[in-house]
Amino acid sequence: MNVFNQTVTLINVSESLDSGYQKTILTDCMWKSKKEKVVENNQLKFIEYYSVTIPYQGEKIELNAENNQDLLILGELKEDVNADNYEDILKRKNVGIISSVVDNTMRDRLKHWKVVCM
Length: 118
What we know:
single chain, mainly beta, 1 helix, 52% strand, globular, 4% helix
C-alpha cells in the first residue's frame, strides 16, 4: 500500500512570472488536515491547517513561505490561475497559504519537503 498517493496543486505567485501565477500539479504526495486549539486574547480558538509531504522527484520545487501568497491546494485544480480568480480560489475549502517549508532533499534517503499551509 502506497501512502504517497495524493495529488496537490502548487500555485506560485511572483512578479517575475509572465502572468504572475504558475500552477504545478504534484503527484505522489501525502497530506493530512489538522485542527489545534490555541488561546489568543484569552479566547480559545481552533486553527485548521494542512501538513503536506512532497517527495523529491528529481527536480527542485519553488515553495515560498515568505511571500504569504503561494498556495497549496489539496487535489488537482483544473482551471488556470490569474489575477481575476486568485482571491476566489483562496476562499475555497482545501486551499492553504504556504506558511512553512522544511527542505529534507539533502538527506541520503526519503528526500522530501514538508509544507504547512494555513
